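Ticket #4471: structure output looks truncated?

Reporter: J.K.
Steps to reproduce: submitted the chain below (356 residues) through the standard prediction queue, then opened the result file.
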Amino acid sequence: MPVEQCSNGKWRIGDGECVYETRRSATRAYQAYLAIEGQSASDHESEGEHTMKADANKISFDFDDTLDQPNIQAIAKRLKEEGKTVYVITRRQSEDSAAVYKVSDEIGIPRSRVYFTNGKMKWETIKRLNIGRHYDNNPDEIRLIRENTDADARLVNQKELDDIVSAIMQKEETYNDYPEAATNNAKRALKWKEENGSSCGTAVGWTRANQLANRERLSRDTIARMASFKRHQQNKDVPYSEGCGGLMWDAWGGTAGIEWAIRKLRQIDEKKTSMIYGYKRMTQEVKDVDAKKGIVTGYFSAFNIKDSDGDIIVPGAFQKSLSEWFPKGRIKHLLNHDPRQPLTSYLLRCFLHDEL
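Returned output as attached by the reporter:
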């Protein structure tokens, strides 16, 4: 929990509030904290960090006004896709669990990772579980977590989270057109594990099984990981009771799911390539060619059309460059935007000003 200077000139301890006027006052507060914890400042200085550092892969969410919101559920699902271990920690009473379990089941969070503090503040549970990051809408909870744990406590700001989810959705498409056989394979693997227990696989593998069983939408990166699981194909026929090969093969969707992932990944990447080298370029419409004079007239850029990068060229965009550089012969037509491969100089400029 180092002492750091804030952008406003004040000092803070770790991720705490920027409230200390000097480094010295922040250091004294930090030393007092260490004294409470029963450890000397010199011990920490020699180690460079806490002996029990929070696990960055463990992420928890408050429930009321946090994980019960659809946009925050989307973030939790996204984190699970990335292989994070997601928890729910709520101050609700344990008998008031129905709504909490309904959401956690939908997201795929095991009930063993849902904690009810029965009215107590959450920081003790977060510290005991060694949580690395916690989302909460209660400023008092955030303050106590920051004061008493190493967790990255994040106050839920609804607008910011809306923006995050929106950016995720706009940036990346998701897909759930995998075959029903892939879903059935994952369900079969999950059922066997539930009934017989198993130490096979990783948290990521079982997250994938839950996603497929629930027919969740998968990102391109998740599909790529499914496709890469083909490297384990040689173990796919191992019976569940005799090893991990067949069980984990089915957890990842089995042959039906993995072959689909390979095809889908190729389809996604081909579409992306087509957008970059087709849509971005747009069709270059040649209007006239005078072979003797070596003059080609045509449209090589169009106004008011959004390309794959979200750029729009508006009328007048070329005016300044044309006025300054055309008389000097510095406007060239380049092959693949490469200045080392000029095809020609622009001798005609009227088509660049055509606003029809």
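Triage note (M.O.): checked the attachment and the full token line is present. The longest helix spans residues 254-279.
Status: closed, working as intended.
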